[in-house]
Amino acid sequence: MNRRSVIGALVTAPVLAACKGNSPHPTAEPSAVVKDLIRKRQALGPQWPTLDPFLFCVHHDDAYPQGNESLGPAASLTGRRLGSDFEVKDGWRMYHGRTVPGFPSHPHRGFETVTVVRRGLVDHSDSLGAAARYGQGDVQWLTAGKGIVHAEMFPLLERSGPNPLELFQIWMNLPRADKFADPHFSMFWSHKIPRQVLKDRAGRATELTVIAGSIEKLTPLAPPPSSWASRPNSEVAIWTFKLEPGARVTLPAASPGVNRMLYLFRGNGVVLGGTPVANGHAYELLAEREATLENGSGTSEALLLQGRPIGEPVVQRGPFVMNTEQEIRQAFTDYRRTEFGGWPWQSSDPVHGTSGERFARHANGNVERAT
């Protein structure tokens, strides 16, 4: 079920459905053409295809206009299907927001969300009383565990110009042993996230950003303690690549049995392992072989998701991901009974003021600042 269906179910029936790996350093040099390197190709739609341990991936890219006094768009909302606006109109969507774009309060159990905000801001509020404003390169890694309700709103702070927003949201499964872990989120502030510019023999540059997946000289920030990525042999990797025209970079090999998916979401003329490939597609790769990306005449960008599969049964109903149908029924029962702690906010779509300061206030009272 995609994000639209998941959250749509919550809006229409809120009670019923309310890092480490061992990859070597990625060199900026070509590798040999590998037979059967590309195992499968799929076009990118609203929901991107994923492999175990990942469950879901979506790319939001919205050209929001200037904001109004409510931090929503200073533009007419006439003709939009407010509450479920997923059709791109004038370059942007309201999603499930009615005043401010985004995703008002909704529950999760049994998995994690990794939200990578490349441009714009996200306001987080949750049933534990925690809050955050993050963006401009920040990442929030949230373990839903035994259950949490949160809101993800996109405040439009700029009153005199546009408010572009671009983010990835990635869902990663939790193994059976950790599905009832205490909810927790970690903030990866942009200035702390490992980045490196790799140069090929011709001096052309590739910008590498490492959110998960240990790489020589680039050690990622620690994932939440109950994450599958926290297990040393999981080989979970979340990397982004931005290649300048003509740049070449080699993806390092992982261990046999690891799943790897490469998403080409921007650019054209890319050659992967000696084979021309199309933008707007996901490529399932044989992870135990290194692979060279050679860019075309424009700037290209790619996202890589990798991990050893958890290999357990997956039963998903809307925002709950468990191992059995009985556990799913119990999740709905628990949510109806407890609301996973209740909702301490005055509205289902809270935003955190007009200041652009990025922060996180955790349930235990600890406060982080982005700088």
Tags for this model:
single chain, 371 residues, mainly beta, Jelly Rolls, seven-stranded antiparallel beta sheet, six-stranded antiparallel beta sheet, 24 strands, disordered N terminus
Instruction: Enumerate how many helices there are, as a single number.
Output: 2
Q: Enumerate the spans where pLDDT stays under 50 for 5 or more consecutive residues.
A: 1-34
> What structural class do helix, strand and pairing data support?
mainly beta
* Strand tally: 24
Q: Looking at the chains present, what oligomeric state does this protein adopt? A: single chain
Q: Provide the succession of SSEs.
A: HEEEEEEEEEEEEEEEEEEEEEEHEE
User: Number of folding domains?
Assistant: 1
Strand order of the largest sheet: 1-18-15-20-13-12-11
The separation of the N and C termini measures 37 Å
Write the CATH homologous superfamily: Jelly Rolls
Which CATH top level class fits?
A: Mainly Beta
Q: What's the main sheet like?
A: 7 strands, antiparallel
CATH architecture: Sandwich
Roughly how much helix do the residues carry, as a percent range? under 10%
Instruction: State Rg.
Output: 20 Å
Dominant shape = globular
Tell me the β content. Answer: 35-45%
The chain-level mean pLDDT equals: 91
- Tell me the CATH topology: Jelly Rolls
